[in-house]
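Hi, does anyone understand the following?
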Amino acid sequence: MLNIAFVGCGRISGKHFDALDKLQDRICVRAVCDSDIERAHNARSSRDCCSRAAVYDSIEALLTAHSPPPNSSQYNPKKENEAGTSNDRESLDAVVIALPNGLHAKVGIQCARAGLHIIMEKPLAIHLSDGQDLVQSCRENRVELFLIHQNRFNPPVQQLHQAITEGRMGRIYSIYANVFWTRPQSYYDSEGAWHGTKEMDGGAFYTQASHYLDMVQWLAGGRPWRLSGQLRTLARQIETEDCGTAFLEWGEIGQPDNLIATINMSMLTYPCNFEGSILILGETGCVKIGGTAMNKVEHWQMESLKAEELDLGSYDTESVYGFGHRSLYTAVVAKLNGEVLPESLAAALVSGRDILDNLMVLEGILLSAQGGGLVIEL
C-alpha cells in the first residue's frame, strides 16, 4: 500500500481522483492540501478515495503534521492541525503535486527534503534552472521523481511505441503533432487567474501542448538536437501565447536526412476542443492516432500487421486528459515497490535521466520565439 498526500485540488485533480478511486487496494490518500481550504474539504467529502484524508491549507502544515515525530511522547494523535482536521500522523510515502506550474519546483523541493517520493503534474517547472534544482534535491534526498504524462499509457500509443521499438515502421522520417483545443477567456480569468501568466503558467506549450511535445520526443527516441519556435497571442487577453508552432530535428548534427517533427498548437479552435493527434511517417509504416487526447487510431498501416493490432484499444472520451492516469499510478506503485513492470509500461514512466528533456525543449521553444524564430541547438 502506497500512502500519499495530494497537493492542489483544482481543475486537474478530478482526473487523478477518478483513477485513485479505482486503486484503493494499492494507494491510500492520507492527506489533501489546498490553499483554498474549502476546496480541500470538498475533495474529502465528495471523493471516496479521499474520505479518510486529513485536510491542510499549506504544504508546511502538511509536512509538519506527517513528518516522523522526534519523540513519540511529544505529540497527541488527536491534536487538531491548522485546518481543524484531526491529525493521526500517518506516515507518507509520496506526494502528488498538482499546483500551478510556477509552484512545482519550490513545493517539490520541500517534499524531497521531507523524504517523500514525488509524482509531479507536467511541466516539471517553468524555468530549466528550477527543474534542475528539483532533480538535484531528489537525488540528494534519495527520492524518486515521476512526471505525469498519462497519454503514454493510452493503449493505441503503447502499441505504436512497441511497433517503433521493434523496428516495424523502419526508419522514421517525420512526426507531426496537432493540439487544436479551445480555452475561452473565462478559463484564463478563473481559478485564481494564474493561467496565461508568465510567472505561474508559462504558456500554452507548457500547460497544454507539453503532453504532445513529450509524445513526439518519446516516439522519436529522445531529445532533439535543434529546434525553432513561433508563438503568438491572437485573441486572448493573457501574458503568454494562445497559439504557436515548433520545429524539431533529430539525428547527426548537420546531416540533411535527419528525422524532423512539427508541433502545431492553438487554444482558439471554434467552438470546442477539436483534435489532439500524432502522425508518424516511416519507411514501412504510416500511423495516425487522433481523437481529442490521442485516444483513437485513425490510420494504422504497416508492411506486416500483427493479429493483436486488429483491436488497437481505441476508446471514446470528450476529455482532453484521456484515461491514462490509472495505468500511470499502477506503474508508479509497482516501480516504488520494486515489482517487475511489463517493458511497455516501464518505458512509459517519465523519470530518471530523461525527466528534464521536456523542460529543456520547452525553454528552447520559448527562447527561439523570443528571438523571432531563432534556431536553438541543445
Notes: The chain has a mean pLDDT of 90. The first strand starts at residue 2 and ends at 7. The longest helix spans residues 357-370.
